Input
Amino acid sequence: MTTTRPIARAAVLDGYATFTAPDGTARRLLVNGPGEDIRRTVIEHAQQLAASIGHDIELVTTGDLGSTHLMIGPEGSVSQVMVENDLQSLSEPSGLHRAADTLRQGAMIDTVRPTRQRTRESVEPPAPRVAEQEPPTAAPEDEQPTARRRPSFITPNEEPTVEATGWRRALGMKASPREEELAAAQRLVSSHWPEIKRISVVNGKGGVGKTTAVACVAAAFARFGGGGVLAWDNNPTRGTLGWRTESAAHSATIQDMLEHADRLLEPGMPLSTIAGYVHHQTEDRYDVLRSNPEMLAIRQQIANAEFDKLVAVTNRNYRLVVFDSGNDESAERWLRMIDHSHQLVVPTLAAPESAESATLLLEALEQRDEYSAWLARNAVVVVTDGERNAPTQRIADEFREAGYRTEVVPFDPELKSGALRFARLAKPTQEAWLRVAAEAARAF
Output
């Protein structure tokens, strides 16, 4: 007879984890302090969950720190679930198993169920044999076996050589440091990740370039990374992302997607159905989920549960989402956007009022909760040089001195108004947005 237990899942990365409880609610977990292991944090959270429901739970983890399947008891016990065709060697424990062993030594995990127990001896490599009192005599030199070198016919992959451009290429010179830097940024932006990533573009002041930043960051990721990118207009008050991007053959908005979200989540629904609700950018290769700027904000309110359902829909179709946040930092949908984000991009004009607004927002997020504080500390600030004699470098330097990663985007008339197309931007502007996207991707 098979007993069905609640299953919790954790996508464990090097610095944090996404913990999904049996009821489907997700929470971002961070290490508890310097020198701590995120895997230990995951196990402790699972123990608290099992204790709160008074029942065993199964913990299934995946990610770049390894995969494992553990049983967590309500009294704090931790043991491995031995599943059929388990290929993991018990003599080579994963980091999560080692974290469990460390916890098992403490008072909170003194008891482990006999049928599920994975003893300490079973998860650590066997101890080396005790040396003989008298080592065996070595074989005569002429009887020693000849070591044979195994030939390899596979050439290891290496990063492509960065080619010089312009006059440097014509003269046969090597790439310059700037060209090397841009090539590294392009490789970073071209990366794919084992889970969907979301970037929120935020600043409580209007007119600072949030919509511009959303379009340019989404285009950089889609052009170099191969699509699968969504720009989501999360602004209930006259969001203009739809006005500045290409329109599909329909006029669907976020309200239409929400209305049909259950249908879009059906297991047999083709992924291509999403094209009827988003607007594809043919040049820049990303999609846009529009708000309705003609509808009053009171008619575009989205509750947390509705926002989560929209996230579930986009999870099926995209690898990266870039949110255009709007200006109402108290709106339920704005705060829920922050909860679902992995990175913040904070645009500001080279003006004291815009920069002060950005600073106030980051300070408020640091006070909100632990995860919001982590986002604020790792935010990427973008200072747009929009006017002559503007204190651009001074403002950028002040953000850097405060510890924020900061990029400067030069003035470009194509950013002021009208259609946003990456190819129409001047080359220095394109390179600046590529650097912004690469800085954002460093947190992934």
Remarks:
- DSSP finds 14 helices and 14 strands in the chain.
- Residues 83-92, 106-136 have pLDDT under 50 and may be disordered.
